[in-house]
Specification:
Length: 620
């Protein structure tokens, strides 16, 4: 290969300087301007010597500079022909140079605005919350964190996603609304790229939430992001991540290290669907506990309770509900009433605000004559109808098997090709498979829904989220109309994706509607504020130990007469349960709480009727 010529080397050097951006181009224009001014000035001094005599060399240079920068000055020039020609040359050259300069400055400014628009500057914050990734859960999390930080000044939520910065900010404004004192900062980048993560100042954040993105194999993206985070957080701050498939939990835990708290999305949604199918109102209670609108769960050391029993602590707080203890061995909700609280224990309470967790001055009075003593109702075999099928359906069936009495029957009616797979080894349930299109009225009637105590309507994962929700709505309408026409009664629990469709679903008067994405978003927001709550919610959603049950009010107090909630609390305590609220049948169709009242004041006077329920933590 022949050696490069001098001309090729010079051109290569020139091309390299030109590729350095706007600054290099302006430098070349400045050099061309100096060359033009020097050349024209030298020719002027040579060809028109009287200019040197009248103005000197400095004056000639200034004269040429002015014609170069302001070509209009030539209109007032007078003199010999060589002088006018040289000034015209300076003006034309200046016109070309100034035009290029203006174009370069405009283009450079445009590029800078585009760069700012893309959100590539570093977030210089401390104590902020970082969200990595983008999905519909973003709006739930941001909305909840805005509520949680409503009393804080300078609160910041920083979001990094592979989306346009302006588009993200606009969508958050549309879906969340005003954010009050909380600033939402968006940056464009890939959460799994270390260089992009550096934009978020994760090392100084209060917490980091990794979202499961939409699309194929979302867990792979989450795990890759956890790997990138592990090298940048230095053990702080805590990281919360959502994982779709339970089988990927070990890999995610290994990738995230000891600071990661993982939420198994499918598992959590499956547990809530099962619990809601057996206890009407369960999803509403869980949503109230998960959001920041009303009562929240706190873990607090309470030295004044040391040495007292759990049963005695239940009535210790007028405006807060004790629901369990967290000791060296972990969280236990609704422990035995004679459990002694040690100095190492933290008390798990529900309160409107942590400032209200204060012991009362006296003992809460209750009405002995209003307490009803009943035995536990024995579990009997149940019949459940499961309509449609999706990836979490087999998990739902297995959890249902852990709740029901032996001899129970589950009929799965779906036209999904995977319906009924992965159901081996069930102990209490007998499963039957039936072919059915759940949107077809005649096929639904052929199933005989009136033969069942519970009906579960799942979202079919063969369709998009909106289409699947539309089909679910059609099924719910058909079932409710059949109930009205035939006078039948069975609980209906449905699974949906979009929170915006809940309003439409309320027309069907379904007993419970589980919005799986919203539930996971609420849980992630809670853990972002306090990662230790993972133990509490893990315990609540587990079939082992105590869970939330709405139970008939007549099992606790005399119905139709006013009593203080302290009386309900005492009645539940004698049954080995913890009462945390009640549900009024008159409000089951009234959003946003659907008749549920959690953590009422112990002295509140209430009148419960036969159709009302007391919400308790109890063993199944």
């Amino acid at each position: 290969m022949s050696r490069a010529t001098l001309r090729e080397r010079l051109r290569y050097w020139f091309d390299n300087t030109m590729s350095r951006g706007t600054g290099a181009l302006i430098g070349w224009l400045a050099l061309a301007s100096v060359g033009l001014i020097a050349l024209v000035s030298a020719l002027t001094i040579w060809l028109v010597p009287e200019t040197k005599q009248n103005d000197g060399v400095t004056g000639v240079l200034w004269m040429t500079l002015m014609r170069t920068l302001s070509p209009g000055k030539i209109a007032s020039d007078t003199g010999s022909m060589p002088f006018l020609v040289l000034m015209l040359a300076a003006s034309l050259g200046g016109l070309f140079i100034v035009s290029l300069l203006v174009g370069l400055l405009a283009n450079g400014l445009k590029n800078k605005v585009e760069e700012l628009r893309k959100g590539r500057s570093r977030v210089v914050e401390k104590g902020h919350t970082v969200l990595l990734g983008w999905s519909d859960q973003v709006f739930t999390i941001v909305g909840e964190l805005v509520k949680a930080h409503s009393s804080q000044r300078g609160s910041v939520i920083a979001i990094l996603a592979d989306h346009d910065k302006v588009a993200m900010e606009s969508e958050i404004r549309d879906r969340v609304g005003p954010t009050g004192r909380t600033r939402v900062v968006c940056r464009t980048g890939r959460p799994s790229e270390p260089a992009d993560l550096d934009l978020m100042s994760v090392g100084t954040a209060n917490s980091v939430v990794v979202l499961s993105p939409e699309g194929d194999d979302p867990d792979a993206h989450v795990i890759k992001t956890l790997l990138a985070l592990d090298k940048r957080t230095g053990g702080r701050p805590p990281v919360v991540a959502a994982i779709s498939s339970s089988g990927n939990i070990p890999a995610a835990r290994l990738a995230g290290g000891p600071v990661v708290h993982l939420v198994d999305s499918d598992d959590t949604a499956a547990r809530l669907i099962v619990q809601s199918s057996r206890q009407s109102g369960m999803s509403v209670v869980c949503m109230d506990l998960l959001n920041f609108d009303g009562g929240e769960i706190y873990l607090r050391p309470q030295p004044q309770l040391t040495g007292r029993t759990y049963g005695a602590a239940l009535s210790a707080y007028p405006n807060a509900s004790v629901i369990g203890l967290r000791g060296p061995g972990g969280v236990v909700l609704n422990p035995p009433a004679d459990t002694v609280i040690s100095a190492e224990d933290e008390v798990v309470v529900i309160a409107q605000d942590d400032s209200l967790i204060r012991p009362g001055k006296g003992v809460q009075e209750f009405d002995e004559g209003s307490i009803v003593v009943t035995g536990h109702r024995p579990a009997t075999p149940e019949r459940t109808l499961l309509l449609n099928w999706n990836v979490r359906a087999s998990k739902i069936v297995r959890y249902l098997d852990g709740y029901v009495a032996p001899g129970s029957v589950l009929d799965v009616a779906a036209d999904h090709p995977d319906a009924g797979t992965g159901l081996g080894g069930l102990r209490n349930l007998t499963v039957n498979l039936k072919e059915c299109d759940s949107t077809d009225r005649f096929q639904l009637e052929a199933l005989g829904p009136g033969l069942y105590q519970h009906v579960i309507v799942l979202s079919d994962d063969r369709y998009s989220a909106q289409h699947a929700d539309t089909r679910t709505l059609m099924t719910l309408l058909q079932l409710r109309d059949m109930q009205s026409t035939l006078g039948e009664r069975y609980s209906i629990v449905s699974e949906m994706h979009d929170e915006n469709n809940r309003t439409l679903a309320e027309v069907t008067k379904a007993d419970d509607i589980v919005i799986s994405d919203t539930v996971i978003g609420l849980l992630l927001a809670q853990l972002a504020e306090n990662a230790h709550l993972a133990e509490v919610f893990g315990y609540l959603f587990d079939s082992q130990g105590s869970e939330i049950y709405p139970r008939p009010a007549g099992d606790y107090v005399r119905t139709g007469q006013p009593v203080a909630f302290a009386t309900v609390l005492e009645s539940a305590r004698r049954r080995g349960e913890t009462a945390i609220g009640y549900r009024l049948a008159s409000g089951v169709n009234e959003p946003p709480h659907y008749g549920v009242v959690l953590n009422p004041d112990k002295s509140r006077i209430i009148t419960l009727h036969q159709d009302d329920a007391v919400i308790v933590l109890a063993e199944g």
